[in-house]
Design brief:
With 360 residues, the chain is α+β, with helices and mostly antiparallel strands. The protein folds into two domains: 2-95, PH-domain like; 137-358, no CATH class. The protein is built from 13 helices and twelve strands. The chain has helices at 80-89, 96-101, 104-136, 139-156, 165-188, 226-232, 237-252, 255-263, 265-274, 278-290, 295-311, 319-332, 350-358; strands spanning 2-3, 12-17, 25-32, 35-40, 46-50, 65-68, 74-77, 92-93, 158-160, 200-206, 214-216, 221-225. The strands form three sheets. Strands 5-4-3-2-7-6 form a six-stranded antiparallel sheet, with helices on one face. A four-stranded mixed sheet has the order 9-10-12-11, with helices on both faces. The radius of gyration is 34 Å and the shape is rod-shaped. 31% of the residues are buried.
């Protein structure tokens, strides 16, 4: 509580505990000249305390009131309403915090402000902090995180690929040639010859729940399922190049690592401080399996894929075959956008992506 500028002479019968004895003393309490005065009803002795040294109780609707006094003493009254009336008459006012807490409009405003702050931190603060943390993350740690995640997927959701090794090699070689050609074209046109990020391509068989899919893990591991290869390799193999280019865009911009850091920001910051990333690594597989990239991340990777295909003399509109076939699978599974998880669950709408890759 704060003291009002004017003194008051209102008196309160209360109990005083001196901090040495458990026996309460009946006292008369009043405020004047910036001090709290207590007079014992038993021996008429006086005690005086500076108001700023008294810890006043917050006003509540029910219950007793207790003021903590210097030296361990306590002033107590059993009836809150009587205490509050005395405090008001004595010129004692609640603190600004208490007045806000006691006012429904102010409490509602405080709640809205808190929600706005939390929303702002989640929308802008956490992504910003994740970007800064990615810059500090050692490359070896990111690769270790990706390897841990891949081991988890292999144990829980994936099986060894059933594709012939020659077919796997042909797809990998086709993609590598596209990367080399795109890099040479970029250098020849004066756009720089920035090397592509290191990646490792893995083929895996997956159950019906995952279906035709591809996804990139932190550190450069890219997984493509047999079902996706079977969907496109025979008559639209260049679409597989575009899909791999999209996943390489995730690797290039470290989207997987940024997503993981955002999901476990507190533990991540602690790990950066103490150099222990074990808790972060342990939680990565679950985050990668349950979460999805933001639409902005997906659009950023689509832009990488489209430019790479153009530089490699691959028409981006070959991706339309992919979109049409994925859409047909969705309809077959009931039309849900989430019927194909992980890699495709958070992608922008098919119509938007068709316009992007189909535009000349």
């Amino acid at each position: 509580m704060d003291r009002a500028s004017s003194a008051a002479t209102a008196r309160l019968q209360a109990h005083f505990f001196d901090g040495r004895s458990a026996r309460p003393q009946r006292v008369q309490a009043w405020v004047s000249a910036g001090r709290l005065h207590l007079q014992s009803e038993e021996d008429q002795s006086l005690r005086h305390f500076e108001l700023q040294e008294v810890q006043w109780p917050e006003r509540q609707r029910h219950g007793q009131r207790q003021a903590e006094l210097p030296g361990g003493g306590l002033l107590s009254h059993h009836d809150g309403k009587t205490w509050d009336a005395w405090a008001q008459a004595s010129g004692l006012r609640d603190s600004l915090t208490v007045r806000w807490m006691q006012s429904w409009p102010y409490a509602a405003l405080a709640l809205l402000l808190c929600l706005g702050l939390v929303t702002g931190l989640w929308a802008w603060g956490v992504p910003w902090a994740a970007d800064r943390a990615v810059a500090l993350m050692p490359g070896a740690v990111e690769q270790q995180i990706g390897a841990q995640a891949l081991s988890w997927f292999d144990e829980k959701m994936l099986k060894p690929s059933q594709l012939p090794q020659a077919q796997q090699n042909a797809i990998a070689e086709r993609f590598a040639q596209a990367l080399n050609k795109a890099q040479a074209r970029s250098a020849a046109q004066g756009r720089g010859a920035r090397p592509w990020p290191a990646y490792r391509l893995h083929f895996r068989a997956a159950g019906e729940a995952m279906g035709p899919n591809a996804f990139a893990l932190p550190g450069g591991d890219i997984v493509m399922t047999d079902a996706l290869v079977q969907l496109l390799d025979q008559d639209s193999p260049q679409a597989l190049v575009g899909i791999l280019a999209h996943e390489l865009g995730h690797v290039q911009h470290q989207h997987g690592m940024r997503m993981v850091l955002q999901a476990g920001m507190v533990g991540t910051l602690a790990g950066l401080v103490v150099g222990d990333f074990s808790a972060l690594i342990a939680g990565v597989p679950a985050v990668m399996a349950q979460a999805a990239y933001s639409r902005d991340f997906e659009r950023e990777s689509d832009a990488v894929a489209r430019q790479l295909m153009l530089d490699a003399d691959i028409k981006p509109n070959v991706m339309l075959d992919f979109f049409d076939r994925i859409e047909a699978l969705r309809k077959k599974k009931g039309g849900s956008d989430n019927s194909l998880p992980i890699a495709f669950a958070s992608h922008p709408a098919d119509a938007e992506r068709k316009r992007f890759f189909g535009a000349p």
